[in-house]
Amino acid sequence: MAAPQISNRVHELRSSRGLSAAELAKHVGVSRQTVYAIEAGSYVPNTVTALQMARVLQVGVEELFSLASPAEQSTERVHAVLLCDPVDETGDGQLVQLCRVGRSLVASAVPPVSAYLPDADGFIEKKSKRGVSVKCAGEVPDNGRRLLLAGCDPALSVLNALVRPSGIDIVTVPCSSKRGLDWLVQHRVHGAGSHLRDRHSGEYNVPFVKRLFPRGGMRVVTFALWEQGLVLPRGNPKSIRTVADLAAKGVTIVNRERGSGSRDLLDSGLAESRVSGSAVQGYERIARGHLAAAYAVASGAADCCIATQSAGRRFGLDFIPLAVERFDLSLAEGSLELPAMKALLDTLNRSVLRRKLETIAGYDATHTGELLI
Description:
The protein folds into three domains: 6-72, Orthogonal Bundle (434 Repressor (Amino-terminal Domain)); 75-142, no CATH class; 143-373, D-Maltodextrin-Binding Protein, domain 2. It is of the alpha+beta class. It is elongated, with a radius of gyration of 23 Å. Helix content is 31%, strand content 24%. It has 14 helices and 13 strands. It has a six-stranded mixed beta sheet.
């Protein structure tokens, strides 16, 4: 028999009293992370902690904590907006994660390739032009403690690993830089990561955000600086040194989708070398994401791709740098008061994140957390 689920009003009452999680934690004698975990329902406090919380919030324990009703604990069906690239095949049976974005419930498709069953909230039962019917394993997340973040950087997973102990969940949706910003315009995500270089100013990301959001309403925060370039098999057997070499006979590449920073970098390099994309074998073959592109090279399906150094290092591949780029996060101002967004911004300024980005991904994290606009 499954254990009964405990619901609570800690976040609601704490907010109404004007207390921060840190202040409540100090009064109760626990950590701020514990308060977040209790509010999210991922941690059930002992009797002493529950009594202390009730006393600080000036309510009875039974007003603060209660058993969830049988209806709340059962599975349910909800209608959601499906978030995926139009060319991706997503349909019945696809596992998804759910997240509230404003007034919309958004279903994000979980990447299918994994050694284990992925963390998911349910699966698509039926797909139509208006959205998808999702069969859920439990309650739909609706407490501001889950954030939907779109972007192509594989290191975004590090953020979720750091905030989850606090009861916060960051759902990342892999997509191109431009696709992520488009979803942000459509209010489908809370934030989007990008590494797009404006060819007129040479500046990354900010010019695009200002054009897409002329009335403001966005915050742009630096995630990291990375190197992007040619990812090659060990030993570089085809002797590829420059973008122009990709047009050589016998060389095959795998490209990235339109709207991605990698595709822009390749096209810029080809234009400077006066080489047409049609002259490059494999130009129309698409890999969705830095790791997917690097894997194509590692598996022998391609001789080269444009990707980050971290993606090439993941598979032990050679790398020739072409550009140092800045990957930023664009965040909707309307979401800044969400507990999950506060946790994200807090994590961006933690030294443990910088160490992980520098050590695991090989990024320059000197400016991580800096507010640009």
